[in-house]
């Protein structure tokens, strides 16, 4: 039996299946996420209009308040104007789909972003329809990619996706349809509609017989991980905390760090909401298990009940600890980021972006948890700020000010 430590707003246990730090990345993992796949995503995405690496903030004052040696926050709030890292994934998968359709019609020609943006293959691109289910940010990325490159897009959202998030997707010209049930129900709905209409599903999660597109999504996310590797230089973190919904983000970061840093890669902590803890549950079972119910959490991007099987293939060995975080601490994290300590930058983080700091805040008063996770004065912790104020109305309610006011 795994020994789970529980305290208010936090639970954690070490992954019994974790491989040792010296384990090479290996061929089985490279058959899913590869150096070449990450290279290709970087090459293509860096040519898109508006591409710029997002900031990596060092937060020494907050680190010292939390009793840590160092703290970094990768701030995705400015990614392509979409306010989350998700801009990298869904849109890249749409791009790859278009590239493949053009290659099929033009003797294998790999069209460049510039050629597609110039409308050189408009006849092929405009005949494509992409679709997906989303809790907000992934759909926004797919819709944006479809609009940018010129294909049609239909997006499905479930019952509890906020109106602000619905409107943000519609803003990119997609048809947005709300369906009953939770996220996993909307995934099944999108798959059925695509089958019926001859559309292509651009999902961030894999299922039986469907892997290539979610793998493109994960390679797209790798652009963010590669930026962090460059920004950190020789200052390697000892720990990285990555929030997980279906685990595509976490698997991408885990793989990219493993490939870049090998045995020097950081201790990898997966953080999930208490109410949507499919990795936490799967880790105990030693295989993917589904979590049911409405998965209601303020960390909207993490309200997923089923792990992505290919993400599981990377993370089941690559994760060192599984942890859950209470909603209260994710909200507290948003407020702490908005009111910085001496000299630290003010940061706009949405509910899901605050998960990692939420975990640190929940662990702060719990010596046993801190010790188990190695969160002490020698720890140099990297947090993934996966989103900014993706829903500005909710952001203002939680923080008491708008993003603009926080950054003024
Ligand atoms: C802002 C944000 N962070 C993290 C995640 C988690 O990503 P994944 O579902 O790949 O685990 C999501 C997913 O939607 C998200 O929107």
Automatic annotation (TrEMBL):
Necessary cofactors: pyridoxal 5'-phosphate
UniProt superkingdom: Bacteria
Pfam families hit by this protein: PALP (PF00291)
Transmembrane segments: none
EC code: 4.3.1.15
Keyword field: Lyase, Pyridoxal phosphate
GO MF entry, a single one: diaminopropionate ammonia-lyase activity
SUPFAM superfamilies according to UniProt: Tryptophan synthase beta subunit-like PLP-dependent enzymes (SSF53686)
InterPro entries (alphabetical): DiNH2opropionate_NH3_lyase (IPR010081), TrpB-like_PALP (IPR001926), TrpB-like_PALP_sf (IPR036052)
Sequence ranges assigned to domain Tryptophan synthase beta chain-like PALP in this UniProt record: 49-366
Protein name per Swiss-Prot or TrEMBL: Diaminopropionate ammonia-lyase
Organism expressing this protein natively: Thauera mechernichensis
């Amino acid at each position: 039996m795994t020994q789970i430590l529980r305290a208010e707003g936090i639970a954690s246990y070490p992954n019994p299946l974790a491989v040792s730090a010296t384990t090479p990345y290996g061929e089985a993992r490279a058959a899913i996420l590869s150096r070449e796949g990450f290279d290709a995503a970087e090459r293509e995405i860096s040519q898109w209009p508006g591409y710029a690496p997002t900031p990596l903030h060092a937060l020494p004052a907050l680190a010292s308040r939390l009793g840590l040696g160092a703290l970094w926050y990768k701030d995705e709030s400015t990614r392509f104007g979409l306010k989350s890292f998700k801009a990298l994934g869904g849109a890249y998968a749409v791009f790859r789909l278009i590239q493949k359709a053009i290659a099929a019609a033009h003797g294998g020609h790999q069209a460049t972003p510039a050629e597609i943006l110039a409308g050189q293959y408009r006849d092929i691109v405009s005949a494509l329809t992409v679709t997906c289910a989303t809790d907000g940010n992934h759909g926004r990325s797919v819709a944006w990619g479809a609009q940018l490159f010129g294909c049609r897009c239909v997006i499905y959202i479930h019952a509890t996706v906020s109106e602000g998030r619905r409107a943000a997707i519609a803003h990119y010209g997609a048809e947005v349809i709300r369906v009953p049930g939770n996220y996993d129900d909307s995934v099944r709905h999108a798959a059925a509609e695509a089958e019926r209409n001859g559309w292509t599903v651009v999902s961030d999660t894999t299922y039986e017989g469907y892997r290539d597109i979610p793998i493109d999504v994960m390679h797209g996310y790798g652009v963010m991980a590669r930026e962090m590797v460059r920004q950190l230089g020789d200052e390697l973190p000892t720990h990285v905390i990555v929030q997980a919904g279906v685990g595509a983000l976490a698997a991408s970061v885990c793989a990219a760090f493993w490939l870049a840093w090998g045995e020097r890669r950081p201790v990898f902590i997966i953080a999930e909401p208490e109410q949507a803890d499919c990795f936490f549950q799967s880790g105990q079972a030693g295989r993917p298990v589904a979590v049911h119910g409405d998965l209601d959490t303020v960390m909207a991007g993490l309200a997923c009940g089923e792990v992505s099987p290919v993400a599981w293939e990377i993370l089941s060995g690559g994760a060192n600890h599984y942890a859950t975080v209470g909603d209260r601490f994710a909200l507290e994290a948003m407020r702490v980021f908005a009111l910085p300590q001496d000299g630290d930058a003010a940061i706009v983080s949405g509910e899901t972006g605050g998960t990692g700091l939420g975990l640190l805040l929940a662990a702060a008063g719990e010596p046993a948890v801190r010790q188990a996770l190695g969160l002490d004065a020698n720890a140099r912790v990297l947090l993934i700020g996966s989103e900014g104020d993706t829903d500005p109305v909710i952001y203002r309610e939680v923080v008491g000010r708008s993003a603009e006011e926080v950054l003024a």
